[in-house]
Amino acid sequence: MSKLANKDILEKIRYGLIASCQPVDDGPMDKPEIVAAMAAASIVGGAAGIRIEGIENLKAARAAVNAPIIGIVKRDLPDSPVRITPFLQDIEDLAQAGADIIAVDGTNRARPVEIESALKKIKEMGCLAMADCSNLEEGLYCQQLGFDIVGSTMSGYTGGEIPDEPDYQLVKDLKAAGCYVMAEGRYNTPELAKTAIEIGADCVTVGSALTRLEHIVSWFATSVKSAKF
Question: In this predicted model, what pLDDT tens digit does every residue of 137-192 receive, in sequence order?
């Protein structure tokens, strides 16, 4: 299926749900054909777009849906904490595989490629650019650079204990600064996803609660096992 025109993409996903179809690494569902089925089912269920990790997964999903796709590549690097789309070659590969939007780590941490270079490469490849940020300072810097979307994706994931709640304040502050905001990170119930839009997010990404079956089942199994009778 063909890609959408860039001018239509931001409007198509505005006030919508992005389903992050990322199975548990090396789990039984970590196969391109299953990721593609997740993507198609997500669109049938009402998602405005999808977020896909990995080149082969992206190729399979692109063939299955005619909806906006945010593409990423995750890598565990020995000399950098940055995992999300760290290399320029990753950006090229994602664009060629059919991504409409390419997301990169937007945090202020040691990285193999400067964020300015990553943004330039995304634009050269004809895609929209998303920055996965952890705080307001990072988000504003990425906005000033020219990123099309600023996400709260990394809030709570750059050190220390991971919070239970989403970072509502970051979403509010990014919106107040004029960013096109993707709320992402711990929006794991329909009510929380709704709240994201109500507090100013342009769209909201939900992952584990939709597509990581191992996590979802464990939530229920743990609760059932705790039952008193």
Answer: 999 999 999 999 999 999 999 999 999 999 999 999 999 999 999 999 999 999 99
pTM for this entry: 0.96
Listed in order, strand segments (DSSP E) in the chain are 16-20, 49-53, 69-72, 101-105, 128-132, 149-151, 181-184, 203-206
DSSP code of 74?
B
Mean of all residue pLDDT scores within the chain: 96
Domain map of the chain by residue range?
6-222
Looking at 3.30.43.10, 3.40.250.10, 3.20.20.70, 3.90.920.10, the CATH number of the domain 6-222 comes to 3.20.20.70
Torsions phi, psi for 203 (to 5 deg): -160, 170
To 10 degrees, what angle do helices 32-44 and 55-64 make? 40
